[in-house]
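To assess whether the prediction recovers the assembly geometry, we first specified each molecular entity separately, as shown.
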Amino acid sequence: MSILVDKNTRLVVQGITGGEGSFHAKQMMEYGTNVVAGVVPGKGGQKFEDKVPVFDAVAEAVRKEGANVSVVFVPPAFAADAIMEAADAGIALVVCITEGIPVMDMLNVANYLKTRSTRLIGPNCPGIISPGKCKIGIMPGFIHKEGNVGVISRSGTLTYEAVKQLSDLGVGQSTCIGIGGDPIIGTTFTDALKLFKDDPETKGVVLIGEIGGTAEQEAAAYIKENFDRPVVAFVAGRTAPPGRRMGHAGAIISGSEGTAQEKIEILQNAGVHVAESPAVIGATMKKLLK
Amino acid sequence: MKIHEYQAKEILKKFGVAVPRGSLATTAAEAKKIAAELGGTVVVKAQIHAGGRGKGGGVKLAKSPEEAEKIAKAMLGMKLVTHQTGPQGKEVHQVLVEEGLAIERELYLGIVLDRAKKQLVFMASTEGGVEIEKVAAETPEKILKEYIDPAVGFQPFQARKLAFGLGLKGDQVKNALKFFAALYRAYVQSDCSLAEINPLVVTKDGQVLALDAKINFDDNALFRHPDFVPLRDVNEEEPLEVEASKYNLNYIKLDGEVGCMVNGAGLAMATMDMIKLAGSAPANFLDVGGGANPETVENGFKILLSDKNVKGVLINIFGGIVRCDRVAKGVIEAAGKMKINVPVVVRLEGTNAEEAAQLLEESGMAFEVGRTFEEAARKIVAAIR
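The predicted structure of the complete assembly is given in tokenized form:
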């Protein structure tokens, strides 16, 4: 099985005519994702690749094509608005790929979503994939393999690295979620763990964290009390100096908080198997599944 | 983005936050003139981005314009060493000359983001002049917190809770409420990522002013504030990082000996960790982004090789949408144009990784190919030993 996205997903691509949006819309369609609509205000009436209808508004894509999931490729200055428009149109899941959205905008988005049933993944993330069923985002589809391990990650290419290790060892994935590298994100490690808990087919979870914030610590607390399937974690940034932002806006050690060592210890205390090296994430999971 | 104290105070003043009177001086003569205009005792403050200036000798009182001139003369050009600058210190190019105040109390005020609650939090403490991390660790009950609902913003009742919680009275309360509201407006409207007033001072005549001010901006929001861009002071940054930013490369200099070039921030950090595990230390963090085309690889090489500590280079690219054979061609092309006299290990994984490895091996260049993450790290560490 899988979580959040599968063969029933009807995807609308916000920003489908832009450079990134059009390239990845095609990639997703090739993978087999059911792309039912695109939205670009002012370009309603066009057809993308001669088959996908483009609308002026998300609400139209919902009404006319039954879209239930949206992916946002809109530039940073307009992305917060795009997320809220999707939520207002009743979209159940919004996946925001856009990098560089101001924190102040995301504060408003987080507040807006509080009173709605829409789930947000990202922003600044690679997206979500249920291998063999549905790919939403920018990850390379071919490295994935259908199976029973859930993957949750704050990173992009490091996730691909871990997924490839799993697939090469014959360990397939139920669903892989890139939750994003920003300070404010929609779905956290803990949120994703709760979803995997409700999926009986997911036999174990790989969690890829990094320095900064307290999301890994919160996940550890949840795992300790509520999650009894094997969890493997890796925390990137043990060699990162405090006070410097390591690429992701969220990856910064402030004061003594958010160091890799602190996160690793708390995860280990919660019974999580922490991979010492990023090269053995897959192997550590495989051993536990035997 | 970080800015200087004097710049932060100029911005805050525009929003109605009370700050001491003062001006910036880049020469001792200017400092003397400003001190004379202000009259009475003045404070001369070195303008560098690091904190802990007072203890390092970067903040001094002057009782006359002549004394201010003398202090400024000594301060300008000196290497100020604080716990945040590292032992090499930071050169002082400008000083802020401000009026001296009759201080009754020193307090702390700050606005930061609480990621887990997804809200801004206004913090105040009676422990002014102390590092707030220290207060949080030792006496957390002394930090008052008010979470801000973004829909309505910071409310007057919240400001009152903080003001009364700090033990302010009479006119002090009135002035504090005005100060707090103005600081919140400045934070939101300037897209700050941090605002810290430490210390916030209460004077003997009941004024509430920002004796020091630290503001950071959200880099992602700079497109809304073109007027902030010139506030950047490249003197405060690592020269190689300034150079890298011209090429849109995300580079941070560290003090190890293995230069690394990686696509993606998480993988870049993991690569640094891997180098450490293999027994060496990374010379930098460098994320060349998802694309990794010949141009970015060439620029990456330029930056890495200008760091004299670099004894070897590890390239670790995960080709997802980008094909590895294209990245390999880029690496070969860039290396062909440049003189590379340190060992280079390349590891390309993902789409067309085999073709890429073959291209590198047949290029005739002195690249070593690492087939796995672990092998690549081991090879580069062995090569520099």
